[in-house]
Amino acid sequence: MSDIPVPRAATEESRIVRLVLILLAVGGLAILVAAPLIAVFAQALSDGGRAAVASLAQPDAWEAIRLTLIVAAVSVPVNAIFGIAAAWAITKFDFPGKTVLITLIDLPFSVSPVVAGLCFVLLFGSHSLLGSWLIGNGYPIVFALPGIILATVFVTFPFVARELIPVMIEQGRAEEEAALTLGASGWRVLRTVTLPNIRWALLYGVLLCNARAMGEFGAVAVVSGKIRGETATMPITIEMMYNEYLSVAAFSMAALLALLALVTLAIKSLLEWRYADQLAATRRH
Amino acid sequence: MHIQIDEIAKTFGATTALHPLALNLPSGALVALLGPSGSGKTTLLRILGGLEFPTSGRVLFDGVDATGLTVQERRAGFVFQSYALFRHMTVFENIAYGLRARPRRTRPEAAEITRRVTKLLDLIQLPDIGQRYPSQLSGGQRQRVALARALAIEPRMLLLDEPFGALDARVRKELRQGLREIHDTTGLTTVFVTHDQDEAMELADLVVVMSMGRIEQVGRPQDIRAAPATAFVREFISA
C-alpha cells in the first residue's frame, strides 16, 4: 500500500511550522501586551478598588485627567482637519514641493519628541523674542496649556494624514471628477463623495491620534514644566507619583489611561462589527 | 449640440499631449476618437468635458465659445473608464446625484427625481436594481448605471472614455448596441474614446483617428477603410 500524501494548498505550511508561528504570536502577545496590562491593573487594585478611586479623586490627579482630556479634545480635531487637508492636497493635485510636504508630514515620526519639545521652548520660551513678547502680553505658551497643545499637535501630526493618503491614492480622482461633471460644487463633492469614502480610514486615524495625544510624554514633559496640578498631564503625573513611591496612585492613573485606550479600541471594534456589510461593500468596487 | 474644436493644444510640463488641432463634430453625431494609448484621445475628451483646460485654442458649443466654462457649466454627461460610480451610494442615489446637486430653484422635487431615476433605470433595462450598491453589480451593469447617471443631468452632450474597455467580448457587443440605441433615442452628440478599431468602425458615424497628439484622419468608417489617409491609419485599422 502506498502512502497518499494529504493534499494541501500551495500556500499552506506544514503543521509544525504553523504551530511554531502560532506559539510565537500568542507568546509574544502574552508577554508584551497582556502581561503588562494585567500587572498595571493588579498594582492599581492592590489596596482595593476604593483606594484606587480615592487616589484618582485627589485634586492634582483630577486636574491631570481634566488637562489630558482638554489637550486631546483640541489636538485631535485640529489634526483631523489638517490631515484631511494634507491628504487631499497630496493625493488629488500635482504641485511643486509635493515631496517636501510628504517629508514634512513624516517629520514628527522621525524627530524625538523631546527634541520637538525643546524646539518649542526655544521658539516660545521667555528667552526668545517672540516668547517674551507673548508673555509680556499675558499669553504664555511654554509651561502653559497652549504649549502642551502645540507639542501634542506636533507629535500626533502624521497619524490622520498617514492613514488617509494610501486610501485616497487607491481610490483615485475619478469619483470626484464624476461628481463635478454631474454639476456638484467642490464643497458638495467633499461632503458627499470624498468624506464618505474615507470615513473608515479617518476614524482609524482619529483613534490612533487620540491614543497618542492622551499618552504623549516626552514633548509634553519638556514644554509643560511639570507643574503639579497645573501643567502635569496624566502620563507626567504618573511618572511623578511613581518617583515618589505612590505606587497605588501611579498605577491607578496608569490603569485609567490604559482603560481610555481600551475604550477607543472597543469603540472601533464595535463600529466595525456594526457596519461590517457597509465596510465590505465600500472597500472594493 | 454642434461642437467645434479650434486649434486646441495641450502640454503637461515639457510633454505635449495635443498638438494644435481642429475638428468639427456635427450635432447629433456619434463620434469615435480612435487611437493607441498616448495618442491624446482621452485628453481631448477631458478638454471637451471641462476636466482639463487647453494650453491654447478654443472650444465652441453651437458656435458659442465654451473654453472658459467650468466643468459644472459644461453639462456634459461623462462616463468614466472604470465608471467611477459612488461606491457608498445605491444605484438609485448614484443616478439621482446630479439632480440633487442642482441649486434649489432648479432642483426637481423628490417625487420628480424618483420618477426620472425610474425612467432611466427602464431605459438601461435594469428596472429592479435601484437599491443595490455598485459592488453588487456586474461590469456590464455598472457601465449602464454610469450611462444612466450621466443622462440624468439632461446633458448637452455625452462623452465616454473607453466605455467598453473593462468588459468581456460578449458583453461589449451587447452594450455597443445599447449605446447606439440610447444615442438614437436621445439624439445627443456623443463622443467616445476607444483603442479598438472594430468598435469605432462598427458603432460610430464619424471616426477621428489620432496618433501622438495629432489627428491622422477624420471620416466616415467606410471612407477611412476605403482610403486611409496615412500609413499609420492603414496599419492601425488593419490590425
Give the rounded overall mean pLDDT of chain B.
92
Residue share in β-strands of chain B: 25-35%
Helix content of chain A: over 70%
| N/C terminus separation of chain A | 51 Å
Reported by name, the CATH topology of the largest domain in chain B is: Rossmann fold
What can you see in these coordinates?
The complex is a heterodimer of chains A (285) and B (239). Chain A is mainly alpha-helical and 285 residues long. Chain A has 2 domains: 1-44, no CATH class; 49-283, MetI-like (MetI-like fold, Orthogonal Bundle), CATH 1.10.3720. Chain A is 79% helix and 0% strand. In chain A, helix 3 (59-92) runs parallel beside helix 7, helix 3 packs antiparallel against helix 9 (186-215) and helix 4 (98-110) packs across helix 7 (145-171). Chain A is globular, with a radius of gyration of 24 Å. The mean pLDDT of chain A is 89. Chain B has 9 helices and 10 strands. In chain B, a hairpin with a 2-residue loop joins strand 9 (206-211) and strand 10 (214-219). In chain B, helix 3 packs across helix 4 and helix 4 (110-123) crosses helix 5. The two termini of chain B are 33 Å apart.
What topology emerges from the helices and strands here?
The complex is a heterodimer of chains A (285) and B (239).
Chain A (H helix, E strand, L loop, with lengths): L14 H30 L4 H9 L1 H34 L5 H13 L2 H12 L4 H8 L8 H27 L2 H8 L4 H30 L2 H7 L9 H10 L3 H28 L1 H8 L2
Chain B lengths: L2 E10 L2 E11 L4 E5 L6 H9 L6 E6 L2 E2 L5 H4 L1 E4 L11 H10 L9 H14 L15 H14 L4 E5 L7 H18 L2 E6 L2 H7 L2 E6 L2 E6 L1 H6 L4 H8 L1
Parallel strand pairs in B: 3-8, 3-9, 6-7, 7-8
Antiparallel strand pairs in B: 1-2, 1-4, 4-5, 9-10
Helix pairs in contact in B: 3-4, 3-5, 4-5
